[in-house]
Design goal:
With about 70 residues, the protein is mainly α. It contains two helices and no strands.
Length: about 70
């Protein structure tokens, strides 16, 4: 993962992922370019999933704390 990938927001990573998919779907790239795009897409998908998992964990923690108060 690139160093600046660590600072991407979910929305930024998702938008980049959309662009990667559009480029792959449009075709016209070499095999090497397609593979590089695919790998980049995998990285971006992981960033998105990690952020969604983190958000879910935070939500679960808040909901769990709220249930404990009741």
């Amino acid at each position: 993962m690139a160093k600046n990938d660590e600072t991407l927001t979910y929305e930024q990573a998702r938008e980049q992922l959309v662009e990667v998919v559009r480029t792959l779907e449009a075709g016209g790239t070499t095999l090497a370019e397609s593979l590089a795009l695919w790998e980049r897409g995998e990285q971006l998908a992981k960033i998105c999933q990690d952020q969604l998992d983190g958000a879910r964990a935070r939500l679960d923690a808040v909901l769990g704390a709220a249930e404990d108060e009741d």
